[in-house]
Specification:
The protein has 2 helices and 6 strands. The longest helix is centred in the C-terminal third of the chain and has 12 residues, at about 70-80. Helix 1 runs antiparallel to helix 2. The chain has one domain (about 1-110): Alpha-Beta Plaits, CATH 3.30.70.120. By secondary structure, the protein is of the alpha+beta class.
């Protein structure tokens, strides 16, 4: 099993959720996060004074899937989240050693 984490622009969340639903992904965790990458934030003007917004609002999406679904999940996220502009986000994949569904006691991929 793998955990796929995607940091995306907030307005792309519905498109990504729909794209993942089309390939059979039934559950995910979504968090509102803030951060910055290479661009280091953005400059804004407030009452005539320029200042830098260091942390840009993003959405973090987490999905745990079987090894066979990883490439399909990444591809779906990429297509749905892409705007072609700076700040489209990133996708990270990490191994999951174990999963347990608390209610039933199911383990491994059955718990996902």
């Amino acid at each position: 099993m793998k955990k796929v984490e995607a940091i995306i622009k907030p307005f792309k969340l519905d498109e990504v959720k729909d794209a993942l639903g089309e390939i059979g992904i039934q559950g995910m965790t979504v968090s509102e996060v803030k951060g910055f990458g290479r661009t280091g934030g953005k400059k804004e003007v407030y009452r005539g004074s320029a200042y830098v917004v260091d942390f840009v609002p993003k959405v973090k999406l987490e999905v745990v899937v079987g090894d066979g679904q990883v490439s399909q999940v990444i591809e779906s996220i990429e297509k749905a989240a892409k705007t072609g502009r700076i700040g489209d986000g990133k996708v990270f994949v990490t191994p999951i050693e174990e999963a347990v569904r608390i209610r039933t006691g199911e383990r491994g991929e059955d718990a996902v």
